């Protein structure tokens, strides 16, 4: 039968948010790959859907194929069962993310969206289905990156997320979804060269992430993602030529990042991210002509790797745009 609506669906999502580490992602910020919601490796634009970088994507494909086959059998027996329909939508999204840019993957994408739209129509008061639809729309539209349709879907996903946050202000998954939608809208506008609008969405993302940090101050991943969004804002400011603002934003991000504990994130990840902050800050000081500060930051970055220097010293050749370096 249909799931109970309202609080039951809400609690189910609240339980899932802590275990669904894929949402915290490993994507870069501000050009900005938003934290990846679901599926192996997440949906960051820079990685595509091919699974590049995974040790071996074949087991994922085998598991998804087996799941899809089983779900088809279950739906043939009970075509209206909401749990089976939701599971099939998630399976189709997984197939879509795993199938790179193959033509046949579009079928899974469309099927996932249609299944979720029908679930929302059948159970309009159940927040889980609205969440899943908004999440899926935001993932697909950020991957497809088709200006008009992609932006419209992202804006629809953002509106649905805002409604969920308004109705259920204490569910972190919904606030996290809203931040993801805002971040993806920032990335879409940045890709179009509209850096002013991108900055506005980045600031909205920061506001949403600050809410998560205030509500769940023991969850280090929210602080980690907030610091990375500050880094993305600084990159956007660099592209606009506002070097002083980029410097101030990066210093604020570094202060926030220095307060993080490695528990739940990993010391190696924190060291790599801290090195990225110092890289960006060094670029800013180079642009501002502050040689002393640039060398100071360079030494801090070297110290993270035991005194070894990885990468070229700061300094710019004609036509070299530091804001476009180290995107990942």
Question: What would you say this structure looks like, in words?
Answer:
The protein is mostly helical. About 65% of the residues lie in helices and about 0% in strands. It has helices at about 5-20, 60-75, 80-100, 105-120, 125-145, 145-165, 170-190, 195-215, 220-240, 245-260, 265-290, 290-305. Helix 2 (about 60-75) runs antiparallel to helix 3, helix 6 (about 145-165) runs antiparallel to helix 7 and helix 11 (about 265-290) runs antiparallel to helix 12. The longest helix has 22 residues, at about 265-290. The radius of gyration is 21 Å and the shape is elongated. Residues about 1-55 and about 310-328 have low confidence and may be disordered.
Fold blueprint:
Elements: H1 7-19, H2 58-77, H3 82-98, H4 105-122, H5 127-144, H6 147-167, H7 172-191, H8 195-215, H9 220-239, H10 243-258, H11 267-288, H12 291-304
Helix pairs in contact: 2-3, 3-4, 4-5, 5-6, 5-7, 6-7, 7-8, 8-9, 9-10, 9-11, 10-11, 11-12
List its salient traits.
0% strand; 67% helix; 328 residues; elongated; 12 helices; disordered C terminus; mainly alpha; disordered N terminus; single chain
SS class:
mainly alpha
Order of helices and strands: HHHHHHHHHHHH
Question: Which radius of gyration do the C-alpha atoms yield?
Answer: 21 Å
User: What helical percentage do the residues reach?
Assistant: 55-70%
- Major sheet: size, sense and barrel closure? none
| Number of DSSP-assigned strands | 0
Distance, first to last CA:
46 Å
- The parts where pLDDT drops under 50 for at least 5 residues are 1-55, 312-328
Give the averaged pLDDT, no decimals: 76
SS summary, helix count: 12
The dominant shape is elongated
Beta fraction? under 5%
